[in-house]
Every structure is written in C-alpha cells, then in structure tokens.
Amino acid sequence: MTDATERTVTPRKSPRWLNRDRMSVLLIALGCVALLLGGSLLYPGFLKPGYLLQQLQIAAFLGIIATGAMMVILLGEIDLSVPWTITGTAIVVISASGSSNPLVASLAIPLGLCLGMAVGFLNAIGVAIFRVPAMVWTLAVNAMLLGAAVFYTGNSRPNGEVPWLATQAATGRSFGVPNAFLVWVVVAAITVWVLKRTVYGNYLYALGNSRRAVFLAGARVPLVTVATFVLAGLFSSFGAILLLGYTNQAYQGMGDPYLMPVISAVVIGGTSIQGGRGNYVGTFVGAIFITLLSSILSVMQMPPAARQIIFGAIILVMLLIHGLTDKNGDI
Amino acid sequence: MTWLRQNAREAIAALALVVLFAAYIAIHPRGFSTYVVTIWSNDGTLLGLAAIAQFFVVLVKGIDLSVGSVVALTNVVASFVLNGSPASIALGMVAVLAVGVACGLVNGIAVVYGRVQPIVTTLATGGMFSGIALLLRPTPGGSIDETMSDALTYAVAGIPVSAIVLVVVLVALLVLLRRTAVGLGLYGVGSSEQSAYMTGLRVNRLKLFAYASSGFIAALAGIYVSMVTLTGDPNIGPSYTLNSIAAVVLGGVALSGGVGSPIGAVIGALILKTISSLMFFSGLPPLAQPFFEGLILATAIALGALGVFRVRSRLELYR
C-alpha cells in the first residue's frame, strides 16, 4: 500500500505495482547488480561477503547524510552547507572529547549533534523567514562555517580524541554485520515510517508539490521548513560522527568530497530535485550504488581525473534515463 | 523615477558597490591609483564574466553549477593554444571559445532534450568538465603569449583594459538582450515557459541558445584568467561557481527566471570582489577573514531579501 497524499498528487497511468517510485528503485537496483557483475569480472574478490559488507559499511556514512539531504530536497529546497557541517561537527567532537574537563568530554557527541541542529536552524531562518533561495543562503552558511572552522583550528589539524562510542558505531561489528550498516537500517526504518505515516511526512511531500496550497490549507509552513532543515543538520552531524569514528581523525575539508555524492545518491534514487516526489528506498539503494561505483573506480586504479569524468558521465546517464522515461515529469 | 523603480535592485546594488569601493580605496595603503584600480578591475572582470555566464542560464530559469568547471577547462585549453604566431593565437582563441560553447551545449541538450533538471545536470557535467581539465593538465602550467597578456591586463590612459573589455561585452549583450527578438525571447522563456510556447517562441532553441551563450562567456572568462595568471590551472573551478551564483543574486537577478540584467550580475561580482579585497587590507587576522567574508555575504543577501517584510498578503510569499 502506498501513501495516500502522494497518490492524489501524482496521477499515474502505469500499472499499480510498477509506479514511478518503484521504477526508479528497480532501475538503480539493476545498476547496482551491473556494477557488481562488472566489478567481479575485473577483480575476483569483488563478490566476497567481506568486501560487500565493507561496502555497506562505507555506504552507511553516505546514506545517513543523504537522509537529511533527501528531506530538504523533498521540501523543494537544497542544503549546500553539508560539507562544512560535516567538518565542523568532526572538529567539535574531536576537540570536546579530548578536553581535560570530564563533563565536556562525555558530552562530545551530543555537542556535535547540537552543532548540526544549530546549523540547520540557521539555514532555516534564511529560507523560511527571509525567503532567500536556499541554494544561496546555505552556500553563505557553508562559507561562514568554513571561516569559523579555519579560525578555530588555524593551520593545524585539530587535536583530541575520537569518542569510543563513535569508533564502535563506525567500525565495530555485531553478529558479523558492520554496526554502521545496522545504524543506517534503523535510521532508514524510522525515516520511512516518518515519511509515510506521520502528519509531518505528509506535509513534507505536500509542501514540495505546492507550497501555496499547503499554506492556504492552514499548515504552519515555516514550522515544517525549520523542522526539516534542523533534521537535515542533525543527520549531517550524525553521519559526520560516524565518519570521524571511521577515519579516526578530523581535518579541514573532510566534508568536501561528500556534497556531490550525497545529492547524486538522492537524485538517482528517484527523488525529484524540485521536491514533492521520491521515496527513501530509492535513496538507500542510491547511496549503495554511488559507493559501489566509486569503489570500483578506485579498484581499477583510475587516475582521479578519469574517475571524476566516469563518475559524472554515469550519473548523467542515470539522470537521462529518468528524464526520458518519465512521461509526466515535465510541462 | 520610473527608471529607478524598475531597476531598484540594480540601483541598490550599485550604491552598495560605490560605498564598498570608496571604503576599499580609503583603506588601501596606496590609495586611488591606476595600479590599485587596475588590479581591482582585473579581478572583478574575471568574476564578472563568470557571473554573466551564470546569468544566461539563470535567465531561463536554470542554474549552472558547472560555470567554474568550464572556466577551468577553457583556461587549461588556453594554456596550450594561446601562444606562437598571431595567426595561431587567433585560431587558438576560436578553439577555446568553441570548447566553451560545446560545454554549454552539452548542458543545454541534457536539460532541453534529456529533460533532466538543470541543477543536477550541471552538477554531473561540472564533474566531467573539471575531470577533463585535470586530465589535460594535472598540475598548473603551460604558457601564454606575454605581449597579449600585457596588452589586456594593464591600463591605457589611466583606464584598465579589463574594464574596457567588460564594458564592451556588456554593451554587446545589452543590445542582444533588449533589442533583438532572441534576447526578448530569452526573457519571455524565463518569465513563463508556457506562455512563451503559446506565443509561438521556439522555447527549446532559445534555451539551447542561453546555455551555449553561457558556455561562450565562461570561455571568455577562462581566456581572461589565463591572461591574468599566465598559466592553465585545473583547480580554479569551485570558487567561480559559488561566487557566480552569489553574484547574480546580489545583482538582483531572480533565480526564478526572467528578471535581471547582465549589468546587475557584474555589479554583484564586483561587490563580492571588493568585499574580499577589503578583508585583505582590513587588518583582521588572516585566519578570521573567511568567516567575515561569509558573514558579510549572508548579511548582504539577507538585506536584499528584506522586501519580504513589506508584502501585504503572506500568500504572495508562497508560489
């Protein structure tokens, strides 16, 4: 059963079981299978469970960050402050955790999450109150975060300690499965429930389709916008803390390589960049696809430049397939 | 008066620019001199051209995240071909511009015929373009004809050549945009694609034209970068992309399409450049400068958006 709001908003002509969302998921899942088969031809160890589990572990960091990005995109906005929210959180957590004050040290992870939510709130103020285009405002917020991080750390790498919990969550395994992946599955289950079953989730889809109609229906549009950006900041920070546990260090620019993959994962998963359409399963599989793709490109020992070209080309092809097969996507 | 009301956003931006420029001259240790103004103008022209490239795409309701990559790619190509005899330089120039137009057309075709949203198209192609630039020239290098560089980056009779170049480009574009059917068609498509289609405008072709023009102007920016720096550098892209978007918004170009002028885009670019130059001479600790740059950018954009508090019905805010 699909969700009622969505069904009334987008009329569908194709058979019920193969709607637009499932089509996207199917497409991207086929992409993943093709990558795995192609990878196994190039590199025999590719289909071993150990390697696959490691890929799922790495995909979890991307996937959790993409969860927040997807919510903002569903709203019809975009969050370009992801890179320095990640870096800022990592710096705050590693510094707080290494603090000599035991209280501060124990609060390192909550502090990091608070930073993410504060950034999200700042984003939301510009977008919901001043009505500045999100693309420009979040860019300015990103620039300020970069400035603050540079000012705080100077030219040196921030010193400190990675919290034990972060390391365990990112690199540990339970029953042979990476904890990071388990955390991601829990996040995914909650997200699917929130998007499909709660009033907030319905508002999110509705706002992405017609802000005007939702405003006239009496919803508190700014409140939903603020909540979404704060959640997105929270997810970015959450992902950043796991990433910190995985890399075991924080450095300037550690978030920079994440902006494009995060948006790509959301969009090739079938979420419309204009908002209002998409489902989380698509984003989930999209994050795995992006991770597999970059892993294969690095296994093939491509120079970074060629990797960038192929990455861009494959994403463009996936988007073109979406664009050309979607009959009612355009005016 | 009517003129002022019609061009309020540009007028306010221009006023802000004058104030900032005065502050910059006041704070600069060498004061108002041809040297200072030439450096300022050269830097401003680079970003100004990138902002015009962004403007063309924004005019037809798109957004171009590949502007910086096209600037980087054309800059790298220029570092291979802009050398030797005058004839080969001229041919090289044509080649560089053709590369720019080709990049713009790739974006345009994916957006118009592939029906992919501009923001994600250009995100993907931007990665490809900068990848090609990196393949061609992994590290900054190459050589540029120095006579031509000198001719284009110094001043003639106290007026920086870059300023003259920028004004010539602007005048040509204004004639194109305000006096020709194609230019007015671009505004039509940006304001309402449906109405434009009903009126009989060739929407698809006009959009392709906008993307190709964006690539052409970005190539001009790439050429000018090589004139100023005398090298081809594949890594200059990201800052141009981000600043060009901020510049068009500061200059009163609406991201919703159909509103604004290339003059506004250039004013926005000059404001950004002046702010960062101001920072450099402000005496703030260097490590604190990026933060204040971001803060000033955010403040400027928020001030520009203060109009939202004057609207009578809040319904107008939600479209």
Could you characterize the architecture of this molecule?
The complex is a heterodimer of chains A (331) and B (319). Chain A is mostly helical and 331 residues long. Chain A has one domain: ABC transporter involved in vitamin B12 uptake, BtuC, CATH 1.10.3470. Chain A contains 15 helices and 2 strands. Chain A is globular. Mean pLDDT of chain A is 83; it is low at 1-7. In chain B, β1 (155-156) and β2 form a beta hairpin. A two-stranded antiparallel ribbon of chain B has the order 1-2. Chain B has helices spanning 2-6, 8-27, 34-59, 67-81, 86-112, 118-136, 146-153, 161-179, 181-191, 193-199, 203-229, 237-250, 262-281, 289-304, and strands at 155-156, 159-160. Chain B has one domain. The model of chain B has no long low-confidence stretch (mean pLDDT 85). The relative contact order of chain B is 0.19. The interface between A and B is large, with 58 and 50 residues.
